[in-house]
Amino acid sequence: MAQLTLPIFDLTGKETSTIELNAAIFGVAANPTLLHQAVVAFLANKRAATASTKDRSQVSGTNRKPWKQKGTGNARVGSARSPLWRGGGITFGPNADRNYGQRMPQKMKQSALKVALSSKVAGDGFIVVDSLDALDGKTKTWITAASKLPKAESKKLVVGLAKNDMADRSIRNVQGVKYVSLEGLTIYDVVRYPVVMMTQDAIASLEKRLTNRAKEAVKA
Known about the structure:
There is one protein chain. By secondary structure, this protein is of the alpha/beta class. Helix 2 (32-46) crosses helix 3 (106-122). The chain is elongated and about 95 Å long. It has helices at 23-26, 32-46, 106-122, 139-148, 165-171, 187-192, 200-219; strands spanning 3-9, 15-22, 126-129, 156-160, 177-181, 195-199.
């Protein structure tokens, strides 16, 4: 399969070399339906059931019959906690037991991630840097580096191989920029940010991981 060639920059904005991206991961065809399904599932799985109402067995109040069944001219009532009365229970109201989660097969998640990354590469929204070692935890250091890199004014998702406190501290106070490790990379973040900046070692690890999983799926 054909390869995609992109330049590799350092944090001074200098092009140091090039990288060959695996077209099976970074060059797949667009699939908006799959991306939409993946994003909806991600947001649904994050949703917490916070709304909670009480039914007639949970609201406070007497369980005594308000008046006798016949002879008063009033409608028949069994309890003041009836949903028909003010202060009574709620019928079929929301409760905290509801689960909004949506299951999405692992192979579909991987395919959606490939589609999302490929759309960034195709749309000139993917930047490769050699490393983030130059970041020292100061916001000013990142701002200086970002100003020298392509897409300087764009919102960015910065992806490193592993957790990096110095990179995170340098980036987290800058509006519109987020740092994540490869383990924390989500399809939602890739779609949400116009530009994805990924380190060279993170790309190598991602390609190896997705390629191995594809081979395992074929064997299965």
